[in-house]
Amino acid sequence: MNAPITRKEQQRLEGASKPRATGRVFSLSGAEANQSEDLIQGMCFINGTPLIVLYDSGATHSFISHACMSKLKLPISSLSFELIVEKPTSGSVSISDVCLKCPLSIDGRNFMVDLICLPLSQLDVILGMDWLSSNHVLLNCADKSIIFGEPIEKVSKDYLTTNQVTTSLQEDA
Asked: Which residue intervals make up region (Disordered) (predicted)?
């Protein structure tokens, strides 16, 4: 008869069997973001709480600090994969915790966003390319602002053949 598996052992086994994916984040601290002229910071709200957000086109995913996640008591889920995030100064970190469908508000616009938990300092949220592209957000580096674009409507691609164009022109002539 086998001995029961402890929770810690189960987590180790589950972690070992998860597939891996890679991610990237440009800045990990609010101090770094404040000192850089290339980064755009702002304010967002989660559950009515004001938070410092960094709009990071160099980040593949969107993140929330562990401290912020704990303070807001957000429910945590596990990713179906292990995410290896490359940090600019200290190598990489392996993470698998995510806050799914967080209610995020920016400039009166409401979004649901999946935020991966990451150790951040002096920074609450990083919105990366996953969020920027899916919400058609443009970064205005000159003004250090963001612009919400509208999704482009699909254009009907009903093309005419050469014969149809010729016939139509002859009928109108």
From this structure: 1-20
Q: Are 126 and 63 in contact (CB under 8 A)?
A: yes
Contact by Cβ (8 Å): 55, 78? no
Contact 55, 49 (CB under 8 A): no
Helix (H, G, I), strand (E, B) or coil at 88: coil
Q: How far apart are CA 108 and CA 164, in angstroms?
A: 49
For domain 12-172, say whether CATH 2.40.70.10 is its number.
Answer: yes
| Segments of 27-170 assigned E as strands | 40-46, 49-55, 63-65, 77-87, 91-106, 109-118, 125-127, 137-140, 145-148
Which residues fall within 8 angstroms of residue 119, CB to CB, at 6 or more apart?
A: 28, 65, 66, 93
Pick from 119, 128, 99, 122: which is nearest to 24 by CA?
A: 128
Question: Chain-centre distance of CA 30, in angstroms?
Answer: 18
Per DSSP, the three-state class of 165 is helix
**If we measure between CA atoms, which residue out of 128, 148, 145, 149 comes closest to residue 40?**
145
Q: Which pTM was predicted?
A: 0.69
